[in-house]
Amino acid sequence: MKYTKEHEWLRVEGDLVVVGITEHAATALGDVVFVELPETETVVATGDEVVVIESVKAASDILAPVDGEIVAVNSKLADNPGLVNEDPLGAAWFFKMRVDDLAVLDDLMDEDEYYEMIG
Amino acid sequence: MAGLLRLGLHDLHVALGGRMVPFAGYEMPVQYPAGVMREHLHTRSAAGLFDVSHMGQVLLIPKQGMEALALGFETLMPVDVLGLKEGRQRYGLLTNNDGGILDDLMFANRGDHLFVVVNAACKADDIAHMTTNLSEVAEVRAVTDRALLALQGPLAELALERLVPEVAGLRFMDQGTFEWEGAELWISRSGYTGEDGFEISVPDIAALGFADMLLAMEEVAPIGLGARDSLRLEAGLCLYGHDIDTSTSPVEADLGWAIQKARRPGGVRAGGFPGAGRILSELETGAARRRVGLRPEGRAPMREGTELFSGDAAVGRVTSGGFGPSLEAPIAMAYVPAALAAPGTKLEGEVRGKRLPVITCELPFRASTYKR
After folding, report:
1. Cβ distance of B322 and A59 shorter than 8 Å
2. Which of B77, B80, B91, B252 has the fewest CB atoms within 10 Å, measured from its CB?
3. Do B159 and B219 meet the contact criterion of CB atoms below 8 Å apart?
4. Chain A: nearest CA to B37, how far in angstroms?
């Protein structure tokens, strides 16, 4: 798994990249009550706002971690947003991306670097 | 958090795992490890303990007797103060000359003085306002050596009567003085959650011991500001600075019930408060806009600031909104023109550039469970 400073995790699955948020981020957000997912076939650039997560308290964004195309979204989150708190690293993935060059992931943090960052 | 004041029970909140955030000049616990959702539902099913010591506790000590004090206070509020019996508490509103609301408050008749609780962010202004305007009839004394705790929920009575058995005799909005281990407690049966419960003014020196005793009970959990906000929103209660402020009148805010007969047109002491011209005329003919409840149709919350549309016309703005954990749905409050205020009116709210359907509804979203 790779990690961004914005507390996203990325997992390579075949030629796709699966994106979610870390347990640390899910805990900080609090109880998630609504997830707004992007359309599939959306082409995104790094830093684009892709997903909106609403907790009881506030709304926050998930940004595209790399350039690519959204090819799948996790529609289970629309009906059961609480999955983000229950299983952030597993069932609560947000979207899958096709990226031109998987080597861009090399620039992201590995697990040790991420845990060092969040202390 | 430099420059922020700390609550007397600060160390307790930290020890309980409270996440401290700046609020109204204080470091306040926004939530504990259980999280807003569980804290909210715990308060609805058992009892939640809130530290609201940031709020202003003020004594009005009469200089010329209680009647002169009551009549003096009536010059600042469209509320019947004279008719409030000893041992009773009432909701009040300080108004300005435009008929707007300077603050909302609770006041109690404690026999030889009035006890007033005001909002944290307004307390300095309120105290100055009362000191200036009540100088002939009252000494205005800020209480600075007492914590204020709220114990709210269906099991609040069961929990509190273990420490103070007499509270079982209090009805909604009763208020009195009680003793616990040598400390004088000022307890009212009231709160800000829509639940039965109590607000307890406790001397600082006894506050930690008292809070510890309550928190040791199985029914009682500590509750932060996050759940306090979602609970009061479900109860349809106004948050000063959001749902009411100097630009909203009591009638627009749907708080006409707080203006008793004695102060209304034809009443024995009608008018005589700031903004009476506007407020009395709105009571008779209705205000041009009104605070309403909103139920968004989808799951997306409509938060404060969400613009509302009827067709292409912008018709109002959400003043507070979020998710109602007991209702498992988003809820909000807003001001809309009177013609659109009828329950069931279909509007749209613009969320992140998209117009989403929303329906006006009666308040509260969830019926209160006060022990009348």
Report:
1. no
2. B91
3. yes
4. 6
CA distances for B179 relative to B165, B200, B210, angstroms = 10, 11, 11
Residues of B with CB under 8 A from a CB of A: 30-31, 35-38, 40, 226, 230, 299-301, 303, 322-323, 325, 330, 352
H helices, E strands: number in chain A: 4, 9
In this prediction, residue B1 carries a pLDDT of 66
All residues of chain B having their beta carbon less than 8 Å from the beta carbon of residue A57 are 30, 36, 226, 322
Tokens linked to B152: 């709210």
Size of chain A, expressed as the number of residues it contains: 119
Q: Identity (one letter) of the amino acid at B184? A: E
Which pLDDT tens digit goes with each residue over B191-235?
999 999 999 999 999 999 999 999 999 999 999 999 999 999 999
The span from the CA of A75 to the CA of B27, in Å, is: 39
Q: What was the pLDDT predicted at B283? A: 96
| Rounded mean pLDDT, B78-101 | 98
CB contact under 8 A, A34 and B300: yes
pLDDT band with cut points at 50, 70 and 90 for residue B48: very high
Percent of chain B with pLDDT over 70: 99
Closest to B87 in 3D by CA, of B165, B174, B164, B169: B174
Phi, psi (5° rounding) for residue B4? Answer: -95, 145
Q: How far is A57 from chain B (nearest CA, A)?
A: 7
- Compute the CA torsion angle B273, B274, B280, B283 (nearest 10 deg): -100
Neighboring chain A residues of B299 at a CB cutoff of 8 Å? 33-34, 78, 81
Q: What is the pLDDT of residues B255-306, one digit of tens each?
A: 999 999 999 999 999 999 999 999 999 999 999 999 999 999 999 999 999 9
Q: Which residues of A touch B (CB under 8 A)?
A: 30-31, 33-34, 36, 52, 54-59, 78, 81
pLDDT score, position A100: 87
How many other β-carbons are positioned within 10 Å of the β-carbon of residue A7? Answer: 21
